[in-house]
Design brief:
Layout (H helix, E strand, L loop, with lengths): L3 H29 L14 H14 L5 H25 L10 H26 L2 H24 L4 H18 L3 H33 L1
Helix pairs in contact: 1-3, 2-3, 2-4, 2-5, 3-4, 4-5, 4-7, 5-6, 5-7, 6-7
InterPro entries: DUF6518 (IPR045393)
Keywords: Membrane, Transmembrane, Transmembrane helix
Length: about 210
């Protein structure tokens, strides 16, 4: 019993850090909205940016496997809490059944995206070369999928170019070696197709909930 306490603490501390980081991400997101100039303002309303934060939780915290998945989920879930809590505290938004639909929807999305990107971050940190390639491709693909949504659905050319550029840059920027970067870029195409399907599913889900 006594010997298990350090293990529990080793598990609990990184997960607590992920939750606190999520609250910070949510609050900073509200601050960024309307503050960043031009097309950069989209970064304050981007699911891809939040996915990158979940990826960072898996990559930077001492977690792997199920714990990495949980860390990513906690970060995104608490980011939702931090964002909507900030709108209530600072913008005095009403809290009622209608306004609670927003956080409920994004908590559901966090429950799906969090494990994916938390695990991807952990694989990026300590996985085999193939695993690192998939992780790099996944984080780049989420930006490219969002770019497709911005271009095809919203017709926002500047924001589309911004997110597409960031997506393509992720593997070269984050890869540890030339081989990592090339494998990550190669993984972008199939993973972007999957990401576009996921983006479409989220779009349809939000339409159904908010109609």
């Amino acid at each position: 019993m006594i010997d298990s306490l350090p293990d529990r603490r080793t598990t609990a501390v990184p997960l607590a850090i992920a939750a606190v980081a999520g609250l910070a991400v949510g609050g900073v997101t509200l601050l960024m909205q309307g503050t960043l100039p031009g097309v950069l303002n989209h970064l304050g309303n981007s699911g891809a940016v939040w996915s990158l934060a979940a990826f960072g939780a898996g990559a930077l915290l001492p977690v792997r496997g199920a714990r990495a998945a949980l860390a990513g989920t906690l970060l995104l879930a608490f980011a939702v809490v931090g964002y909507y809590g900030s709108t209530t505290l600072f913008l005095h938004d009403d809290v009622n059944g209608d306004t609670l639909r927003g956080p409920a929807v994004w908590i559901c999305v966090a429950a799906v995206a969090g494990p994916i990107f938390g695990t991807a971050g952990a694989l990026f940190r300590g996985g085999k070369p193939t695993h690192r390639a998939v992780a790099l491709g996944a984080i780049g693909a989420v930006f490219l999928a969002e770019a497709l949504y911005l271009g095809v659905v919203l017709h926002q050319a500047g924001e589309t170019a911004l997110m597409a550029g960031l997506g393509v840059l992720m593997p070269p920027l984050l890869g540890r070696s030339a081989a990592d970067r090339l494998r990550g870029l190669a993984a972008l195409v199939p993973l972007t197709l999957l990401g576009a399907l996921a983006e479409g599913a989220v779009f349809l889900f939000t339409v159904l909930v908010f109609r």
